[in-house]
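Weekly structure sync, notes
Attendees: PL (lead), two postdocs, one rotation student
Agenda item 3: pending single-chain targets
PL asked that the sequence for the first pending target be pasted directly into the notes so everyone works from the same version. It is reproduced below exactly as submitted, 71 residues in total.
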Amino acid sequence: MMKKFKLRKAFKKKYKKGQFFYLVSESEFIGVKEFVFRTEDLTERIVVTQKEFGDYFIFVEDIRSFEKLDY
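Predicted structure, written out during the meeting:
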């Protein structure tokens, strides 16, 4: 299940406040936590630190793909 987040303020002058991102992965190595996000159209990828994650991103919803599909 992917999670959808929104920017609470502009990020690195490239992404505007309110833009949506999907959290693709989280990793931790020797106490350093990183988060990988994809833009809503899935064309761009950004990697942020735990501090940037807390400062810039707001949780919006869980995305449950392929749930209740009728084939």
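Discussion points:
- The first strand starts at residue 2 and ends at 7.
- The chain has a mean pLDDT of 89.
Action: rotation student to compare against the earlier draft before next sync.
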